[in-house]
Records
---
Amino acid sequence: MAEETIFSKIIRKEIPADILYQDDLVTAFRDISPKAPTHVLIVPNVLIPTVNEVEAEHEQALGRLFTVARKLAAEAGLSDDGYRLIVNCNRHGGQEVYHIHMHLLGGRPLGPMLAH
Ligand code: AMP
C-alpha cells in the first residue's frame, strides 16, 4: 500500500488549496510555488505514486488529466499561445511528491524543454 502524500489531503479538502476543478476521477489545484503565470497541478484522486505504478485500470483517470488540462488551459487563455504539460518520475525526473501529477504551465514563453 503506497504512502499518502499531502495531495491526498488536498483532494479530500482536509488542508487548503486553490482548487480549480474536481470530479470523481481528478482534482486540479494551483501549485504552491508557481514556475509560470499559470501553474496548475492535475492529479488523479486515486493514489498512484509514480508512472512506474501505472496500470491499465488507471487509464480513465489518467486520460481525464488531459481533458482537464485542455479545459483549464482554455479558461486561462493559453490555448493559442500554448503551454507545457509535465509529468516527473522519480529522482532523475525531479519528482518531489509521490502522488502522480501533471503540471500545466503557461502564460509566458517557457524556453527550452530541458535546462541542460
Ligand atoms: P514534482 O517535482 O513534479 O513532484 O512537483 C511537485 C509540485 O508540488 C511542486 O511544483 C510543488 O511546488 C508542488 N506542491 C507541493 N506541495 C504543495 C501544496 N501543498 N499545494 C500545492 N502545490 C504543492
---
Amino acid sequence: MPNPLYDSLFGIHAGKTTPFLHLQDGSVISHSDFLEKAARLAHVLTEIGLEPGDRLAAQLQKSPEALALYAACVQAGVIFLPLNTAYTADEVTYFIENSGARCVVCDDKSADDLKPIADRLGARLETMNADGGGSLTDQAASMPASFDTVSRASDDLAAFLYTSGTTGRSKGAMLTQDNLLSNALTLGDFWKFTSDDVLLHALPIFHTHGLFVATNVILATGGSMIFLPKFDLDAMIDLMPKATTMMGVPTFYTRLLDDARFTKDLTAHMRLFVSGSAPLLAETHVQFEKRTGHRILERYGMTETNMNTSNPYDGDRRAGTVGFPLPGVELKITDPATGKTLPHGDVGQIEVRGPNVFKGYWQMPEKTAAELREDGFFITGDLGKLDDDGYVHIVGRNKDLIISGGYNIYPKEIELVLDEQPGVLESAVIGVPHADFGETVLGLIVPEHGASLDLEAIGEACKASLARFKHPRKLIEVEDLPRNTMGKVQKNVLRDTYRDVFLPVDT
Ligand code: MLC
Ligand code: AMP
C-alpha cells in the first residue's frame, strides 16, 4: 500500500545489507537491520492501540532505536512528535496536552515524573533508554521483523514539531509526508549526495536539522551516518577522517576551529560541510576556508518550512549569505506593514512558498492565519534582502527570538517566569552575543518600588520550570526599561547597551 514517505526513505532499502549507522563502539547497523527494528516497533505501536493519525510524543536520548521509532511511526501512519531532551516535566506536560498525544515514550529516568502526567491526560507511557532498552523494545523483541506499511497520502500528517511563540505558548507545526519528502529529495540532489556518502552526525534528532535534513537526506540517497550521541569534540576529530560530509550549527564550526587538532589533513576526505539553524559569522566562514581549504555551505530553514534556501554546491558559496531559494521554493521580500513585494535590494520580511511549507499550527487557526497567507506564502519572521546576484541575506528578525547554539528561545516564555517572582515589577529578556553559542540569554529585571531582589533565588526559579538552555546566563537589576512612545519596551536599545556582557574583554 502506498506510503510515499516510508517508501522513498525506508522501503527503498528493504533487503539491503549496506551500512546505515556506524556507531561509536565500532559496530554497524545495516539498512535491513534498521528496517527490522522499525518494523518490530511498528507492530508494538499497533498492538498498543495506536491508529493512523494518532500522535506519539518521544523525549528520547539519541540512539538507533530512537531513530527506528521515527521510522516505525512513519510506517504505521502515526504522527511522530519528538521533544528536546532538555525540556522539563512542566514543558513536556504542555506538549502532551496540546497535541493530544496518545502515547508518550521517555527514558526510565523520566518515567516517574511523566507517568502521573500521562495518566491524567489519558496517554499511554512507554520507555526507551539511551542503550535502546525499555518497555517498547522489550515488547518489540517478540514481534515479526516485517510490517505491512500503512497506506498514507502525500498530504497526510507525518510529524509535529513544536516551536515557541512570541506569546510564550508553543505551537505545533504540522508537517505532511510531502513537506518532509520533497525537501529530502531536493536537498539530496542539490548537495549531490550519493550512496558513497558518510555523514558525521552529531546533531540532536529531535529537531528539523538533525532529523529532517541530515537523516532524511542520507535515507533518501542511500549513504550512511557516523551516528554520535551528541557533539563531542574529541569524537568529531577522531572520526572526521572516516566521513565525507558533516552538517552542523555554527557552534560546531567555531568549536572545531578553536582546536589545533582540526587541520587541513583531517578534512582531506570531506567533500561538504553544511551550516544552518543560526547565522554563521562571515569571519568563521573565512577562517574555516583558511584552515581547511573547504568553503562551508550555508543554508536557511525553519521548523515550519524545512529548508528554504541554500548556497550553491557548484559555484560561489558566499560568506554572510544563505544563497538562493531551493528548486521548487518561491521567496519574496515584503513590506511588513502592507505585505507588498519590495523593490529589489530593500530590506523586508522574508516570505516563502513551496511543497516544503507546513500545513499550519495544530488547533491554532488564528495563529496559522496570521503567518500562513491564503495564497500559500509563509511569513517567516526573518528580515532579509536580495543582492544584485540574487543571493538572500538575512539581516535580522522581525520576531522576538534568541538563537543559542542553534536552539530557539522565545523571551516571552522566560519573562513570564521572571515576572511571577517576588519583588519583580517587570522584566525584559534579550539575546546578547556569545562566543560559543552565538547568542545567549540575558534577563533584565525592574524591582517593585522599595523591593530588594534576590537574583539568585530568581535564577533558581527559572531552573524549576524551564529547560537548561533557556536559563538566563545572567540577571541584572535595572531601574526601568526603555520604551518607545507607544509604551513598547525597546529591546534593540537594551541589546545595544548590553552587547558586550559575555564577550571576552580585549586586553
Ligand atoms: C547545551 N546547553 C546550552 C545549549 N546546549 N545552553 C544554551 N544553548 C545551547 N544550545 C547547556 C548545557 O545544558 C550545559 O549546561 C551548558 O549549556 C554547556 O553545555 P555544553 O556541554 O557546552 O553543551 P553541549 O552539550 O556541547 O551542547 C552545545 C551544542 C548543542 C551546540 C552542541 O546545543 C547542539 O547540539 N545544538 C544543536 C541544536 C540544533 O540541532 N538546532 C537545530 C534546530 S532546527 P550546564 O548546566 O552544564 O551549564 C532549526 C531549523 C534549521 O533551527 O534551519 O535547521
Ligand atoms: P526554528 O524555529 O528552530 O526552526 O528556527 C528557525 C530560525 O532559525 C529561522 O527563522 C532563522 O531565524 C534561523 N535560521 C536558520 N538558519 C539560519 C541561517 N543560516 N542564518 C540565519 N538564521 C538562520
---
Amino acid sequence: MKSAIYPGSFDPVTYGHLDIIKRASEMFDEIIVSVLDNKNKTPLFSVDERVKMLEETTKDLTNVKIDSFSGLLVDYAHSINVPIILRGLRAITDFEYELQNAQNNRILSEGSVDTLFMTTSLEYAYLSSSGVKEIAAFHGNISKCVPPLVEAAIRQKFPKES
Ligand code: ADP
C-alpha cells in the first residue's frame, strides 16, 4: 500500500489544504494528514480542535486519516513506517523554506524519507491559515477561505463585541 504523510500546523485547515488532500488522496492508497504539535508556537486552535476540524472536513475521503505528532517529522515517519512526505507549494517564498526542510529530512533520515511537492490550485495560491486568522480577527469575510464549520469555529475565537 502506498501511503504519504501530509504534515502541517493546519491552524486552521483551509480550502487550500483540502484541495491538496483531495488531489493527493486520488494518487495514493492512503493519506495521513498529521497535525504538528509545535511547542514553540502559540496556535489559535489546540491540537485536538485542529484534528477534529480535519476529521470533519475530510470525512467523505475514505482513504484519508487524521493524526498528530510532536518532535522530528522523520522520527514520526519512521514510527508509522511511511517514508513519503507531502507538502504544498504556493509561491517561490514557500519553495526556499520547503527545500531546506526537505533536504534536512533527507539528511536526518539518511535518505530514507523523501518529500514530494504538490503545487496549489491557482484559486488558492494566496490562501494561508495566518491570512485567514488576520481577516477573521477584524471580522472580515472568510467564507471563500474555509469550510462553514471552520468559519464558525474561528468566529467563536473572535467574537464581535456587543
Ligand atoms: P506549516 O506546516 O508550514 O505550518 P500549514 O499548516 O499552513 O504550514 O500548511 C501545511 C502544508 O500545506 C504546507 O506544505 C503548506 O505549504 C501547504 N499549504 C498551505 N496553504 C496552501 C494552499 N493554499 N495551497 C497549497 N498548499 C498549501
---
Amino acid sequence: MSRPPANRAGHWPSAATSVVGVMGDPVTQSLSPLLHNTAFADLGLDWVSVGFPVGAGQAPAALAGVRALGIAGLSVTMPHKSAVAGLVDELTPTAARLGAVNCVAREKGLLVGDNTDGQGLVASLRRGAGFDPAGRRCLVAGAGGAARAVVAALADAGASEVVVVNRTAHRAAEAASLAGGVGRVGDPAEAATADLVVNATPVGMAGAATERARPLVDPGLLSAGQLAVDLVYHPLRTAWLAAAAARGAATMGGLGMLVHQAASQLARWTGREAPVEAMWRAALAAVGRGGDVGGRPPGEAPGT
Ligand code: NAP
C-alpha cells in the first residue's frame, strides 16, 4: 500500500498525523483500518486508522479517552453501538432513530454519533446491483442492528413496502416500525413476491455458530427478476446466495455494504469523497476470492 506524502515532520506517521480507529471486542479481525488506511493513502491524507480493543462496559472510559486524546473519529462495532449512542454530544437523526452509532466524528469540538450501515446498503444496491429501492417491495430477514439500519434506510429510499420477518416476533415489530407507514411484519413466504430480499441474520457466516443454520427465507421461493442480498460477506458468496442464484435470482453479497458504510464514515471525518474502488479492491483481497462475489464492484456500472 502506498503511503500518504510526507507531512510537515517529513515522515509518516508523525505527531501531526490525525488518528481514527475502530472500537470493539473483538476488534483484530475488523476490516475498518484496512479500508480507511487504503482510502487515506489513495487521497494522500495524513491520517491513520488503528484498532482499539475495548471490552463490554468500557465504552464510557473509551469515549473519555477519545475526547482527551483528540482522536479524530471512531468506527464503532460490537458490543458498543448502543452504548455509544448515549455517550456522544449529538446524534444524527438516523443514529437517534436507530439508537445505535457505528461512527463518531469530531465536529466543532463535539462528538457526533452517526450510523452509516443503512446508507451503505442502499449505496451498494444502487452502485453494485443497479437496484433503486424507490417504489420497490422489500423483505428483510432479521431484526438485529444491521436489519434495523437496513429497514430504516430502505424506507427512506422510497421503498413501497418493507416487510420484516424474524425468529423473535416482538423484535420484528420493533424493526418494522422503523419503516413507518411502509413497514410491517410478514411471513417468509412473502419473499416469493418481493423485488428485493435481504438476509440480515448471521446464518451462513463462516465460523459462526449459525453457519449451517436454516435460513429464515427458503431460497427455493426466489426466482428470476428478484434481487437477493446477503449482508454476510465471509464467505463472499453464502450457500443461501448460491441457492438463490441457482433459482435465477440476481444476487449480491455484503462486501459492498461494508465498503460503502466505511466510505461514508471517511467522508464524515475528512470532508472528502472516499475512493470506493480502491477500498473495494482492498476488501476483496482481504476476504479472498472464494468464488463469485455475487455483485459487481461498488462503483462499476451495472451490466446485463
Ligand atoms: P444481531 O444484532 O445479533 O442480530 C441478529 C439477527 O439474526 C436477529 O434478528 C436474530 O434473530 C437473527 N438470527 C440469529 N441467529 C439466527 C438463526 N439461527 N436463525 C434465524 N435468525 C437468526 O446481528 P447484526 O449486527 O444485525 O448482524 C447480522 C449479520 O449482518 C451478521 O452476519 C453481520 O456480520 C452482518 N453485517 C454485515 C454488515 C455489512 O456491512 N455487510 C454490517 C453489519 C452486519 P432474533 O431476534 O430472533 O434473535
